[in-house]
Amino acid sequence: xxxxxxxxFGNELKNLEIDADIVRSLPDDDVDARLLKKIGKNFGSNNxxxxxxxxxxxxxxxxxxxxxxxxxxxxxxxxxxxxxxxxNIINIKxxxxxxxxxxxxxxxxxxxxxxxxxxxxxxxxxxPMYKGSIVSEDETASLIVFNIENDANVNLIAKEVxxxxxxxxIPEKLYYIGSPMLVxxxxxxxxxxxxxxxxxxxxxxxxxxxxxxxxxSGVILPLFIAVVSIVWSLGSMAFLGIKMSMISNNIPIIILxxxxxxxxxxxxxxxxxxxxxxxxxxxxTAFVYVFIPIMLAALTTIxxxxxxxxxxxxxMIVDFGIFTALGTLFACLLSMFFIPAILxxxxxxxxxxxxxxxxSFITNYLLQPLYQLIANxxxxxxxxxxxxxxxxxxxxxxxxxSVDIQEYFxxxxxxRLAEQIxxxxxxxxxxxxxxxxxxxxxxxxxxxxxxxxxxxxxSPEVYTSMSxxxxxxxxxxxxxxxxxFPQEIEQIEQLWFLLDGNEVxxxxxxxxxxxxxxxxxxxxxxxxxxxxxxxxxNRFIAKNSTEECQIQIxxxxxxxxxxxxxxxxxxxxxxxxxxxxxxxxxxxILRSLKSGFFAAIPIIATIILLFGFMGLTGISLNxxxxxxxxxxxxxxxxxxxxxxSHFKASFKKNNDVYAAVQESILVSGKAIIINVVSVxxxxxxxxxxxxxxxxxxxxxxxxxxxxxxxxxxxxxxxLLILMNKKNNQHEN
Amino acid sequence: MKINPYxxxxxxxxxxxxxxxxxxxxxxxxxxxxLIAAPKDKEADVLMIIKDKNGTVKERExxxxxxxxxxxxxxxxxxxxxxGIATLSLPDNVIWLYMPAFGKAIRISLLSKSQxxxxxxxxxxxxxxxxxxxxxxxxxxxxxxxxxxxxELLPKSKKSKYTKINLTMDKNxxxxxxxxxxxxGDKLMKIAEFNYQKQGAYWFxxxxxxxxxxKEHATTIILSEVKFDQGLSDxxxxxxxxxxxx
Lengths: 732, 246
What we know:
The structure holds two protein chains of two kinds.
Chain A: H1 2-12, H2 31-42, E1 48-54, H3 61-75, E2 80-84, E3 90-94, E4 98-103, H4 114-126, E5 141-148, H5 154-167, E6 173-178, H6 179-213, H7 216-239, H8 251-276, H9 282-306, H10 315-345, H11 361-376, H12 378-396, H13 414-426, E7 430-437, H14 443-457, E8 462-466, H15 468-480, H16 489-495, H17 505-508, E9 515-522, H18 527-544, E10 550-555, H19 556-589, H20 593-617, H21 628-654, H22 657-684, H23 692-724
Antiparallel strand pairs in A: 1-5, 1-6, 2-5, 3-4, 7-9, 7-10, 8-9
Helix pairs in contact in A: 1-7, 5-6, 6-7, 6-8, 6-22, 7-8, 7-10, 8-9, 8-10, 8-22, 9-10, 9-19, 9-21, 11-22, 11-23, 12-20, 12-23, 18-19, 19-20, 19-21, 20-21, 20-23, 21-22, 21-23, 22-23
Chain B: H1 5-17, H2 25-36, E1 41-51, E2 57-67, E3 71-78, E4 86-90, E5 94-99, E6 104-110, H3 124-127, H4 132-135, E7 136-142, E8 148-155, E9 164-170, E10 176-183, E11 187-199, E12 202-212, E13 217-228, H5 239-243
């Protein structure tokens, strides 16, 4: 069955696609996100790529030639629907005798002399349409903007753009930005992470397992279960047509880390049973011991992941929760049913004489002294924990939140540099769209658009804006030599004659001329500025939107506000749900609500420590690190469950709290430590990821694992000793 | 001197019914220019059908008056919103645009020859009245076929968007059948297909389909109610007349 399942899902894996587009993951039930997606689809705003050419001075013959070279190169790429740059942009301007409709520069006679460049500079400066879109004010950067056809393969074209423009080997610096480039870039990073980090994590865990178990089966079996679980869960994703996102990219490493854990516990217990008791059926006996703790551990981990489904803003986080939970379920089932089957098939009994003695380093030099400490000074241990928790609570409120996609990249990353140039020289990259519904040729609607633009541009966060109204206004000015906007609809309809067929038109109005947008950019990544701007604009819209001219605003700053708020809601929601269900589940299965609460204590302490650490170090809460607490809760609770269930069984048998704690620490503690080291090491591999939040994600999970392990092995036993001391019949 | 009547008959029959073999490319192109510019003046109703990649079709209608090679007056009749708009093309790339809603004519200068005109697939270079033989250096690629010649036209000006045009010319009457426009990198950019018909003494393009290959965008121009040599006066092709709504 396992073989058939693996072959089936393995075959499905080839259909697994990567989708790094954050806009596509935005939920349809959010007004801002829905409108943003609609605008992206109807006005092609998601398909716009930008090349920034940076040099010391744009107005030089060689630079203009290179811009033309890039423009021509892009125009020749199949799937690129339009290219707009300094060397081909249409220029409509008034002259002594009428209107000149042409291009900003003559493509066949590029400017060469100082006088020609002066003329070009003046043309650009005097035309409001070019503000922030062609040449930067400091004249050191120029933009080449291209659009990719709707049905084209964005990733392939973006790659071709980079390849072909890099091959030109021009001396000026080129930077690539815009949604297609960003999405392609992130996809590449994801692929790179998957193909390099996963094998490293695999190797690291293998080495740790080898050192811990000193047997080949102790290495192969946990890794085998992890790999099968990864194949099954990713295969299920592919089977259901769900694409790999920048969050679900973590699934393999997470399943590798936690999927191997259940097998570690099974093997550890089998070894223990073989060592201590001469049962006729070692595997069956060990299975009875580990069934409940492993099932509980898996269920709580699954709860941790499932908790993302509730309150998550991004669909990609929901997908991540579902398929990591599924992978955990697969790993649990395979560990409990497939591993015993394999061990039986391998005729395990014959090897029993070779069973290792439990005199390992971990037991003798770590767990035994630890037990001594806890048994002798439980109050001191508790006090240290309380101090740590207190210190963390103090730092908890300094946690920074960030939804800025640029924080995904390292500081020296070209995309991040490109973003910086766009912010400094071209007024930002975060798109803002003001959507108008009404007759796009109506003077009233167009005038309202102009008013909205003027109002927007008063905000310090908005450098410039562009719309069909501005285009009409400019043509009208050139035609009539007056800034008075046309009063008659017929006049606008006729001015439209000069725009008909223009490639820019579909970016501003729909085909039926019933909808139009103002396109602008937002400068600051700061959330407060976004909130203030949203309020500022919403005041205007509430006052000016009418039945004939319905106004709505959206864009990444608006989505960011909701996403930012959802980070808190999602964090609180998922933790609360996870803790509640964990307590109920553990309490129910162990038939003691008290045990449920006890099991939750180390992990709650860990979560507080985790947030304290984030507040202290300035690691922000973002779409990746928001997952840490629940993942840590799901995995970390397992350690407490193992300890508490072991303690309960032992205490019931001997009614000796110290002996029960000692046995729990020495037996389950060993599996926990092996597990923590391997899981933490697996996650720490993410530190080498090219994506910054994933680095933090790996680091924070590893820290949480260590913390929850320490909680389960120190805080929990101390509490158990203190709480059960009076019931102890073997008190020394 | 007596001329053999059979020889005379033979001369006329070849002149009328068959091509003269071994003609050089320049002569052929000049003959095509003569055929295109043969009428003294022309009047027609013009239907423009613009079709994009998604199959969206837009139609425009206009009346055309043309005198000689360079004087053209288009007055748009459809769509309704743009009815009355008129363009007057005069020699030396002078174009006047009249918008009735403003009651004003203004001279526009289409500075870029490669620029598509008003959303069609025709650029200013395509619509130029300047004879092909003056703008291009022709060479004969093939005349093996009984029905047509294959010519390659290389632009004389460096300012041409095209690097070459492959022209398929009717062997009997010298009108263009097809033109393939190539751009940098020897890439096929556009294809024009002509449907020439004869009316009275003149051949004229009843229908032209211009397709921009890369964009899968096409413009079809269909002429109807065509009249030749109506004795159109020069006064028609003036700014004053442009403002008179018909």
